[in-house]
Specification:
Layout: H1 3-12, H2 41-57, E1 62-67, H3 73-85, H4 87-90, E2 93-98, H5 102-112, E3 119-123, E4 130-137, E5 146-150, E6 155-163, E7 167-173, H6 179-186, E8 196-199, H7 201-213, E9 214-226, H8 228-231, E10 242-245, E11 248-250, E12 267-269, E13 272-273, H9 274-283, E14 287-293, H10 294-302, H11 308-319, H12 324-327, E15 328-335
Parallel strand pairs: 1-2, 1-4, 2-3, 4-9, 9-13
Antiparallel strand pairs: 5-6, 5-8, 6-7, 9-15, 10-11, 10-12, 14-15
């Protein structure tokens, strides 16, 4: 099977998938940390941007959609901050939590607590039609990817196979779909012989689908990744597929990668190609408003927080260079909203 198919089963199968079997996988007791695990400050900062976007949209109500919501912790932090900072907006929020894990969905009402009254829907897919703001924090990196290898004269694909003695292993074969070579051709990317790389058809299909469902509003995508020229370069010539278990990551290996071991028992992730995500979004009718490091996005919002000197002590983990601040990027997209000067872009627009 393709690596994409393997990831789909290992991560999302309803019975054995890593994400499907638990309501929460991150945090001190989990396998990795996200910005949400730093504390409520991340949601409080996002609320500043969401409130500004909601006011720009006008109207009596707006949809707040969190894709890859897990048990709803981020939305709970956002709404709690809104209750304190912008109570008049809280009454206009229609919350939609998008999550494939039934276990996580079952925990959302309890996590939201008294804010659960704002929850309109909890389902596995983005609402068919919505107007407002969609937030996706570390969603795209966990989408299934195809794993390819450049040979002397052609691009090959790596597949997951079973050896009766060695267990799961990688074998090489022809491309499962011509879309993979077309993907690199659109980017004008030529891999060198021996290089490996990941291609996420799922990520570009997801953003195109979300764009079609959005009538008017904004998308805030936060994830770790690169522009295509950086991602498909000698710096990442072994690929970026890795696994997290017990807060330890393992990179690619030539014989039996760590992410083939214990399927369903560990996270599998790959860096996001933001160039292709942005191009797919624009082809589907979205406008790119900004693409910047999480550091600069959050610092632009920090000035609106009461007692920012106190807040900055709590936000250091989110903005420190070399950590979440520079590895994570924020891609801000809009539809039928023009190109407003947003608070999240007010500090400095920069990608490192």
């Amino acid at each position: 099977m393709t690596v994409a198919a393997f990831m789909g089963l290992a991560l999302y199968d309803p019975d054995v998938g890593y994400y499907a079997r638990a309501a929460q996988r991150s945090g001190r007791a989990g396998d990795f940390f996200t910005s949400v695990d730093v504390g409520p400050i991340f949601g409080e900062l996002l609320e500043v941007q969401i409130a500004e976007m909601a006011r720009l949209l006008g109207g009596t109500t707006f949809d707040l959609v969190e894709a890859g919501a897990g048990n709803g912790r981020l939305s709970a932090d956002i709404l709690a901050a809104m209750r304190q900072r912008d109570p008049e907006l809280l009454d206009t929020v229609r919350l939609h939590l998008v999550e494939t894990s039934a276990a996580a969905r079952a925990s959302q009402a309890a996590v939201l607590g008294p804010l659960a009254s704002r929850l309109v829907s909890s389902q596995a897919s983005v609402p068919d039609s919505f107007e407002g703001i969609l937030v996706a924090n570390e969603l795209l990196d966990a989408m299934p990817v195809h794993h390819v290898a450049q040979r002397e004269h052609e691009l090959a694909e790596l597949y997951v196979d079973v050896d009766e003695h060695a267990g799961l292993r990688l074998v090489e074969g022809p491309l499962a779909t011509p879309e993979l070579s077309a993907y690199l051709e659109r980017l004008d990317i030529r891999l060198e012989p021996g290089w490996r790389a990941e291609i996420s058809l799922a990520a570009v299909n997801w953003i195109a689908d979300a764009a079609r469902r959005l009538r008017r509003g904004f998308l805030i995508l936060i994830d770790y990744g690169h522009e295509a020229r950086e991602l498909y370069s000698v710096t990442h010539s072994a690929g970026t597929l890795t696994t997290f278990s017990g807060h330890r990551s393992a990179g690619p290996e030539s014989s039996r990668p760590a992410w083939l071991i214990n399927p369903g028992g560990q996270d599998i992730t790959a860096h996001v190609d933001f160039t292709s995500v942005r191009a797919a979004a624009e082809s589907a009718g979205l406008t790119t408003i900004a693409f910047l490091d999480q550091t600069y996005f959050l610092l632009g919002l920090l000035s609106s927080i009461r007692n920012p000197q106190s807040a900055i002590r709590n936000v250091q983990t989110l903005v420190m260079p070399g950590g979440l601040g520079s590895t994570h990027k924020a891609l801000i997209l809009g539809k039928n909203v023009g190109e407003p000067a947003l608070l999240g872009c007010s500090f400095k627009v920069r990608v490192t």
